[in-house]
Amino acid sequence: MLEFQRAVLDSLRQPLETGKVDVARANAHVSFPANVQLVAAMNPCRCGHLGDPALACSRAPRCAADYQGKVSGPMLDRIDLHVEVDPVSAADLALPPPAESSADVAARVAAARDRQTARAEASGARTNAELDGDALEEFAGPDEAGRALLMQAATAMRLSARSYTRMLRVARTIADLSASERVGRIHVAEALSYRRQPPRA
């Protein structure tokens, strides 16, 4: 992701927010649908060895802040899930397979989508990502403990209004994956864990 110029990355902000691309020319102004799912990957720093004292460059961790700074805050704000993946060692390859197979995960995802489809009639939104306004509060509003955690995190992590809304949608999806009717504290906590924290300089 960070090999693209910053201006190119920032040009994605509006399509990701509105689900459409506006093209303006001298004689015409056309909008195209662009309801997409963005999947991006990046190294933590230019050398890719941040966190490994034996391989990291002499500028760590400052190099990570400089490198990751190529992506603007508003752009990162539009990416709901940030997952840090540790390097795989040779010893990791000898570990037993995970308890939940890919087929099991696929079944849970399909069931979660069915819940969203059933909710669409009442909410008007086909997916949780489309929940907004009163429907967002009705179907994704957390319980008392979950709301308290979200408000605490909003202050500590300085969440924008956009981030707050996106956290509710992610928490609703996590609840759907666990077949939970109500969004609880545990779902909010997991949703918050996917928010990216800036590297320490």
UniProtKB/TrEMBL annotation:
Gene3D superfamilies: P-loop containing nucleotide triphosphate hydrolases
Domain Magnesium chelatase ChlI-like catalytic: 1-91
Protein name: ATPase with chaperone activity
PANTHER family: COMPETENCE PROTEIN COMM, MAGNESIUM-CHELATASE SUBUNIT CHLI
Residue ranges of every copy of the Mg chelatase-related protein C-terminal domain listed in the record: 100-195
Superkingdom in the source lineage: Bacteria
Species the sequence originates in: Qipengyuania citrea
Record-linked InterPro entries: CHLI-like (IPR045006), Mg_chelat-rel_C (IPR025158), Mg_chelatse_chII-like_cat_dom (IPR000523), P-loop_NTPase (IPR027417)
